[in-house]
Amino acid sequence: MITYAALMPHPPIAVPEVGGERAQEASLTIRGMQAAAQKLVLTQPETVIFLTPHGNVFADCLTCLIEPHLYGNLAAFGHPEVAFSYVNDLKMVKTVGVLAEKQGINIIGIDKNTSSRHNLNPSLDHGILVPLYYLKQAGLGDKPIAAISIGMLDNLQLYSVGKIIQEAAQTVGRRVAVVASGDMSHRLKDEGPYDFHPDGSRFDLMVKDLIACADAEGLLDLPSKLVDNAGQCGYPSIIIMLGSLDGFQLHPEVFSYEGPFGVGYLNAGIKPGRPVPSILDHLIRKQAESAEARRQNESAPVRWARQTLESYLQGGKTVDRPNDMDEFERQRAGVFVSLKKNGQLRGCVGTFQPVYDNIAEEIKHNAIAAGLRDPRFSPVTVQELSGLAYSVDVLTPPEPARREDLDPRRYGVIVRHGGRSGLLLPDLEGVDTVDQQLNIALQKAGISPGEKYSIQRFEVKRFS
User: Fold this and answer.
1) What CATH number does residue 418 fall under?
2) Which residues, in sequence order, are CB contacts of 455 under 8 Å at separation 6+?
3) CA 121 to CA 54: how far, in whole Å?
4) Among 364, 96, 121, which Cα is nearest to 243's?
5) Claim to verify: residue 75 and residue 101 sit in the same structural domain
């Protein structure tokens, strides 16, 4: 059973050995962490599962540490003497992995050999070590722990992972507490880790209020743009934590909130109460209804891109082209197909000059490539298809341009030097200036800003 769930931040400065006198600037956070730790320990868990955003994080899976003993220290923050060693609850970890696999969710085990081969971290990261510091102070003792790193999955999958943790605890017969490690917005001040954004404080206050009133569905439904603008690292951990409490009445308590260094630190705890109906089936239906509503409003090129990728993944074949694509069979142009998941790019492949006989063929081939052959991402899986949003950009022929001819809202840009080239589409979120646009295109091409390079610009007709 799940005995308790706590949301705890992880600022190393809140550890007195690291922060020194500056730790007092986060005194409210320290008191909140102490309170959360005490409440958790009082529920007498046999295992504590940590959810961290600072471990081995991937776009398409979660990871967990699978060494028999877990060790970590704060040497990266100048204090190797602040160190912890705990037994890993491998039975819980294995059970979570088996249950997740049955639901098509990948959880990859990381040991010393795997981490050495792939340059990963086999140790406890500060997202775990900072909360663990206060749990040990509260009397956690030598209880076994487990370390799970979040993945960039959609909210329904993350919530399902939490439900899997709950089922694993029941299967193994463990009293399990869950610690969701995560900081809130990093954009509360200009002097913070990121530039100030007004959505930072909005996000933090909404999360605080929704936790206080035990509104799990409200937390799941936060707009993706708000979450992105906040520049946070705690939201996925929160969603998994909520899933671990699914089917029980929630008794929440907010212990503290402050943002002394431009980063929001929220401490909260939730104790599960009596059984209530699960909301997981409702969430699954809602996601399906949302996907269907999105499909009803698709333009013809987007529908064709989606149907092509879906059919290819589900059966290895492409579908017949629909009649509403007739006009695109009579034209040739470069085309980019972009896939997004939870507002984040999931794949983008295109041609800036036409390669195939017509635009329809260009869309078909680039849709499949965006899903399977974008080197920045793992291939899209069948399980992800319902959560993808598509856009199709049809390009005008590129023309020579000077820096002063550019406008990142209207024109895309191509930079070239020798055999290297980089392309950036127009009207992208976060690309507001010509300098930003050129710098990103140059980085993509591997061209130094000091090298001489040519510039071309183009316009697009965007279908969504």
Assistant:
1) 3.30.1490.150
2) 400, 401, 402, 403, 405, 406, 413, 414, 415, 438
3) 10
4) 96
5) yes
Q: Is residue 293 part of a domain?
A: no
Whether the pTM exceeds 0.85: the reply is no
- Where b means 16+ CB within 10 Å and e means fewer, 416-452 reads bbeeebbbbbbebeebeebeebbebbbeebebeeeee
Question: Maximum CA pair distance of the chain?
Answer: 73
| Full residue range of the structural domain in which residue 190 is found | 2-283
pLDDT tens, position by position, 50-101: 999 999 988 778 999 999 999 999 999 999 999 999 999 999 999 999 999 9
What is the structure's pLDDT at 290? 80
Average pLDDT, the chain: 93
- Is there a single domain that holds both residue 35 and residue 142? yes
- pLDDT tens-digit series, residues 277-327: 999 989 888 888 887 888 888 899 999 999 999 999 988 766 777 778 888
Cα(first)–Cα(last) distance of the chain, in Å? Answer: 45
